[in-house]
Amino acid sequence: MSLPPALSALLDRASVSPSLLQAPGPDQGALHLAVAAALRAPDHGGLKPTRFVFIDGEARRAFGEILADSLARREPATPPERLEIERGKPLRAPLVVAAGAALRPGHRIPVWEQEATAAAGVMNFLNALDAQGFGSIWLSSGALRDTTVKAALGFAETDALLGWIYAGTPAVNRPRPVRPEPDAFCRSWTP
Ligand SMILES: Cc1cc2nc3c(=O)[nH]c(=O)nc-3n(C[C@H](O)[C@H](O)[C@H](O)COP(=O)(O)O)c2cc1C
C-alpha cells in the first residue's frame, strides 16, 4: 500500500545511538526548520513553552564538566572512572540539544499541559531532523532535575529540562523500526 510521504516518515523514524552520530551535525538552517516544526505542536493558551539550547564544538567539553560535577554532587561515591565517562558523553555526537520547557506555574493552563506541549514539540523536532537526513536520540539523566545544571544552561528554577537530544549524521544506514501492532494499543469504547 502506498502511504502519504508524511505518514511514511512518521512510521519510519528511528533513534540513532550517540555512538553512531558523526559530523556534520545539523546546520543552522536544519535546526531552524526543526524548531519551527516544534513550535507547531498543540499549545493550549499559546504559551509557547518549548525551548532548545544548542551545545556544539568546544562548548560540549564545558557541558561535559557540568554533567560530571552534577553527578559528583548527586552521588558523591561515584568512582573517578564513572565521572570520566559522564564528562565525555557530550563528545559522542556533533550536537547536543538541551530540550526544555519555560513553565508558568499558577497559570490557568496547568503545568502538565505546558510540559506536554514542550514534549510534543521535542517529538516534532526529532521528526524534522529525521526528515532532513539527520539522526538523533532523546536521552535523559539525573542532571535534568539538577537546578545547578538548569541555571548553567540559562533555564529558570521553575523551568523543566525534558531531555538531552544527541544529533548528527548517521554513521550507517539508519535502522528502521519494527512497527508495533497497533491493535494492542487502542480500542473502541462502548457504553
Ligand atoms: C523523555 C525520554 C527520555 C529518554 N531517555 C533515555 C535514556 O536516558 N536512555 C535511553 O537509552 N533511552 C532513552 N529514551 C528512549 C530513546 O529516546 C529511544 O526512544 C529508544 O532508544 C528507542 O528507540 P526508537 O525511538 O527508535 O524506538 C528516552 C525517551 C524519552 C521520551
Please explain how this structure is put together.
The protein is of the alpha+beta class. The protein has a domain at 23-55 and 89-168: 3-Layer(aba) Sandwich (NADH Oxidase). Helix content is 37%, strand content 17%. The protein is built from 6 helices and 5 strands; from the N terminus they run H-E-H-E-H-H-E-H-E-H-E. The chain has helices at residues 5-12, 28-38, 59-74, 80-88, 111-131, 147-152, and strands at 21-22, 50-56, 95-101, 135-139, 160-170. Strands 1, 2, 3, 4 and 5 form a 5-stranded antiparallel β-sheet that branches. Helix 3 packs antiparallel against helix 4 (80-88).
SS-based structural class? alpha+beta
Task: Categorize the overall geometry.
Answer: globular
Mean pLDDT: 96
Indicate the CATH architecture of one domain.
Answer: 3-Layer(aba) Sandwich
